């Protein structure tokens, strides 16, 4: 005989634990199943081990989705302040880093413990490690879950099994397979918040710059018009052996379309060409020395090599056209990535269950009563900076209250 529950939540990550706790606190008999050996690894490794658990400024504009309106309802009904109230109730010390990002003072482990405690307070049942292999729906609408440790029957199922990023800690395509089974559309999944790579030959001159970090402005796509398809971020960039990383690149990677360029402004505070041309009369120094006042020395040398200018050339001796070319290389460095580091390194998966298939109030599939999708499995992807957890909490609460 299969064990019977009101609700089975598949995936005990951020969204799943939140949803299970809320549904159980509302009086439902809930079972939470996860195939991982270790609970909530993504929370544990998040924010460098301190979990950037929300962002005080989180709003619909910080999320990508084919339907940008979908996330509004859940986000407005469970706000960063609501999650913060929970964090305070559990006496977890936290601090704000830049741009509204909230982190634990001590450890991400505290957020996991908090969610476990919330589940325990409402008698959530656990099955872990337990892999859900298949789901079938009976004629009366109930769901039968086949797992590697026996069957489970539930009136409702919440799919909180996440996206494809970081397969080595349990990511699976389970949500997408289920969507296909129930004839729900999928927005093509893609790695997001991910370092970008370049072909070996093209990147060879920049590979020695690995380790250099600086604040830049990076853009991609079109920013103007009725349907802007691009984005602009001002954050730190990091050179790596294979390409570019750092918050600026992770942010822009979610918007980048393969085959198109990203444009990096390495000195966003300065019009480099104009400054150099105006300084020809008064700046007596050699070009290399001038640039290394503004940029890391190795980067200045690399840029001069790439533009064919000698580091020991005197500014006054250089034609304006050469300085304009150098200015462009610094203020509008345009480069076409060959790809990304993929799901192995991506913090999230862009795309997922098409939101047009779901109720924005409850997260239930419109054509499969009793089947819900929450968290990263859904086509709602946050920027870097605590937004993805806020979506996990908010969508988990929306479903949890509706069950
Ligand atoms: P999540 O992936 O957390 O959970 C899904 C669960 O489902 C997993 O536990 C998995 O084992 C289980 N599962 C999958 N298939 C199953 C099956 N068939 N049967 C049973 N169980 C199954 N975000 C943020 O806001 N702030 C931050 O600081 C960070 N930092 C960060 C760092 C790194 C390195 C990564 C990879 C990601 C982040 N993120 C982040 C993103 C954030 O971690 C992510 O968006 C949420 O964890 C998504 O929560 P979910 O609950 O939707 O999925």
Automatic annotation (TrEMBL):
Keywords: FAD, Flavoprotein
InterPro entries in UniProt: BaiN-like (IPR004792), BaiN-like_dom_sf (IPR023166), FAD/NAD-bd_sf (IPR036188), RsdA/BaiN/AoA(So)-like_dom (IPR055178), RsdA/BaiN/AoA(So)_Rossmann (IPR057661)
Superkingdom of source: Bacteria
Domain spans labelled RsdA/BaiN/AoA(So)-like insert: 190-348
Start and end residues of each RsdA/BaiN/AoA(So)-like Rossmann fold-like domain: 6-400
Cofactor: FAD
Presence of the UniProt keyword Flavoprotein in the record: yes
Keyword Flavoprotein: yes
Pfam families found in the cross-reference section: HI0933_like, HI0933_like_1st
PANTHER family: OS12G0638800 PROTEIN (PTHR42887:SF2)
Name the record gives this protein: NAD(P)/FAD-dependent oxidoreductase
Organism field: Janthinobacterium fluminis
């Amino acid at each position: 005989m299969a064990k019977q529950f009101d609700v089975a939540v598949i995936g005990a990550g951020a969204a799943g634990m939140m949803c299970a706790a809320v549904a159980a606190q509302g009086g439902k008999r809930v079972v939470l199943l996860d195939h991982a050996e270790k609970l909530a690894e993504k929370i544990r490794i998040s924010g460098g081990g301190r979990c950037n658990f929300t962002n005080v400024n989180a709003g619909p504009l910080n999320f990508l989705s084919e339907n940008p309106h979908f996330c509004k309802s859940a986000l407005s009904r469970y706000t960063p302040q609501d999650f913060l109230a929970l964090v305070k109730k559990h006496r977890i010390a936290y601090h704000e880093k830049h741009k509204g990002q909230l982190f634990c003072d001590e450890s991400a482990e505290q957020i996991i413990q908090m969610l476990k405690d919330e589940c325990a307070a409402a008698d959530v049942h656990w099955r872990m490690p337990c892999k859900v292999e298949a789901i079938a729906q009976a004629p009366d609408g109930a769901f039968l879950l086949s797992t590697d440790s026996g069957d489970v029957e539930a009136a409702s199922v919440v799919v909180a099994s996440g996206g494809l990023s970081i397969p080595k800690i349990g990511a699976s395509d389970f949500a997408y397979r289920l969507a296909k089974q129930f004839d729900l559309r999928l927005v093509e999944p893609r790695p997001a918040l991910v370092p970008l790579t370049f072909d070996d030959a093209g990147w060879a001159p920049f590979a020695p710059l690995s380790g250099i970090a600086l604040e830049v402005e990076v853009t991609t796509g079109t920013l103007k018009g009725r349907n802007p398809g691009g984005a602009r971020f001002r954050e730190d960039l990091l050179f790596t052996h294979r390409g570019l990383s750092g918050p600026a690149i992770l942010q822009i990677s979610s918007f980048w379309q393969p085959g198109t360029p990203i444009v990096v402004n390495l000195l966003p505070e300065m019009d480099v060409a104009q400054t150099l041309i105006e300084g020809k009369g008064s700046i007596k120094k050699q070009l290399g020395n001038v640039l290394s006042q503004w940029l890391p020395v190795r980067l200045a040398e690399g840029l001069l090599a790439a533009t064919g200018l000698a580091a020991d050339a005197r500014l006054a001796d250089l034609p304006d056209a050469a300085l304009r070319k150098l200015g462009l290389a610094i203020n509008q460095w345009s480069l076409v990535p060959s790809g990304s580091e993929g799901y192995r390194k991506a913090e999230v998966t862009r795309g997922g269950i098409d939101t047009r298939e779901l109720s924005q109030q409850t997260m239930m599939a419109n054509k499969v009563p009793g089947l819900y999708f929450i968290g990263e499995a859904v086509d709602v992807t946050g920027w870097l900076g605590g937004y993805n957890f806020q979506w996990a909490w908010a969508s988990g609460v929306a479903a949890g209250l509706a069950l």
